[in-house]
Write a sequence for this structure.
């Protein structure tokens, strides 16, 4: 059986705290062919359990850990895409949280422009609002003519640039970056890092997953390690 | 139900945007474009007419309009539901990025399919009026109500089946068999009066058969539709939407961990 949602939205948090995880755990159940999860304990896989985490306004938090310890899972949890199986996720209401990962949620047959409009609308912006930001997205992503081309013709660096530009223009309170600052060429890396710093300075929070110690040292105020 | 309507209102912009984009992309991909919307039911009807009207001689008066109406309504019903299955898996990349209702893309698929089918329906209505005479009267005011009932029925099935098919892929194959069988048991190409009296309840428990019957009463016979069938269809659609929403609340935060993509 699936549990009830363990996510609470409340303003009853200390000043400056945007969200908090209290002994949170996620469980992947190996499913059988019928798509039903087994109840056996040995069929369960817990990337992490009893994880505590707190994010303040304007803070940059790094997350480190080996492959498969649940870093991406944690970001999905914070983005509200999956819910914890144990523990509590407490966050302020109406937070605009944006998750950016290398496998971006684009529609391959639509152009960069159409994808930007769609992503913006899915993120809750009005069509007018997002259309007024299209030129800024086009400029920041430096896609030029490719902006009008279908996304399947993009290189992985171009995809990351488009995703990052859309996310920035969507004005997030919390930006979750999954290894995204290490894609793209040097020029764009420097530019996107500068933008990330600008976001932090304007009181937004950023959580980033990275394997690169230097990125974390340069950009984050503290890091947590998950997995033992 | 209220929860469902609220989320529809919240996402109305994206639903409209995606429906228009889907219809355009579909039309662009084919040489005959929008013409296919109308060619498909016409060709199907012609085929059934040849098999059942000519070869097997089960011609009733106005057989063509009888056949055409059944085909159009059934295709509306079937293609909308079939199109919504598998949408969660197909859009998993978006669901993994943004918290969205998992039935959103099923609704978008239903909306674009229904828009297409409604256009076909009105062209067909014009054809019926032109060929065999459509009785104009107050009974035609039932049409918008029937459309709404049909839409909610399809939505109810689609929410439940889109979630179910994300867990159990076999369901898509099974449903395609069921839909093919449904064509035979919904009295599309044979006269509904041939159903024995004692089996009528069983016959009309098939929602597609009931749906086709209420449309036929209004369009072909110029009558008011049967209240019992209407109530049955309304109850069925409310139950399915309610069950779908309840199920969705349970799986919303967990389904992405389990689906195979």
């Amino acid at each position: 059986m699936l549990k009830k949602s363990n996510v609470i939205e409340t303003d009853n948090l200390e000043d400056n705290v945007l969200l908090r995880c209290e002994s949170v755990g996620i469980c992947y159940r190996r499913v059988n062919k019928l798509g039903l999860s087994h109840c056996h304990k040995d069929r369960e896989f817990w990337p992490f359990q009893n994880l505590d985490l707190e994010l303040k306004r304007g803070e940059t938090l790094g997350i480190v850990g080996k492959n498969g310890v649940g870093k991406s899972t944690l970001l999905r949890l914070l983005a509200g895409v999956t819910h914890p199986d144990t523990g509590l996720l407490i966050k302020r209401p109406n937070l605009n949280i944006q998750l950016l990962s290398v496998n971006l949620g684009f529609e391959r047959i639509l152009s960069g422009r159409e994808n930007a409009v769609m992503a913006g609308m899915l993120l809750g912006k009005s069509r007018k609002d997002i259309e007024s930001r299209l030129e800024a997205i086009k400029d920041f992503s430096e896609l030029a003519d490719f902006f009008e081309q279908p996304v399947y013709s993009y290189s992985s660096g171009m995809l990351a640039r488009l995703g990052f530009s859309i996310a920035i223009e969507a004005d997030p309170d919390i930006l979750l970056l999954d290894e995204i600052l290490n894609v793209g060429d040097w020029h764009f890396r420097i530019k996107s890092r500068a933008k990330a710093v600008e976001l932090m300075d304007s009181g937004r929070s950023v959580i980033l997953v990275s394997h690169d110690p230097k990125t974390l040292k340069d950009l984050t105020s503290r890091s947590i390690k998950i997995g033992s | 139900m209220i929860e469902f309507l609220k989320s529809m209102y919240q996402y109305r912009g994206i639903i409209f945007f995606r429906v228009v984009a889907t219809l355009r992309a579909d039309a662009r991909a084919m040489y005959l474009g929008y013409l296919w919307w109308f060619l498909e039911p016409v060709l199907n009807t012609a085929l059934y007419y040849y098999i059942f009207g000519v070869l097997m001689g089960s011609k009733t008066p106005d057989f063509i309009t009888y056949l055409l109406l059944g085909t159009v309504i059934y295709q509306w019903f079937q293609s909308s539901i079939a199109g919504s299955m598998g949408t969660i898996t197909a859009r998993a990349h978006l669901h993994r990025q943004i918290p969205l209702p998992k039935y959103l893309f099923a609704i978008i698929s239903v909306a674009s399919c229904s828009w297409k089918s409604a256009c076909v329906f009105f062209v067909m209505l014009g054809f019926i009026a032109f060929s065999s005479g459509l009785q104009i009267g107050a009974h035609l005011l039932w049409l918008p109500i029937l459309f709404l009932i049909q839409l909610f029925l399809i939505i109810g099935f689609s929410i439940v089946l889109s979630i179910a098919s994300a867990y159990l892929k076999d369901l898509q194959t099974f449903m395609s068999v069921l839909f093919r069988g449904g064509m035979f048991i919904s009295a599309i190409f044979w006269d509904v009066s041939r159903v024995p009296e004692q089996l009528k309840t069983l016959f009309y428990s098939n929602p597609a058969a009931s749906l086709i019957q209420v449309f036929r009463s209004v369009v072909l016979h110029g009558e008011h539709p049967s209240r019992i069938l209407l109530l049955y269809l309304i109850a069925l659609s409310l139950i399915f939407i309610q069950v779908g929403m309840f199920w969705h609340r349970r799986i919303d935060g967990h389904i992405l961990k389990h689906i195979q993509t």
Summary: Chain B touches chain A at residues 13-14, 17-18, 21, 25, 93-100, 166-168, 249-254, 256-258 (CB under 8 Å).
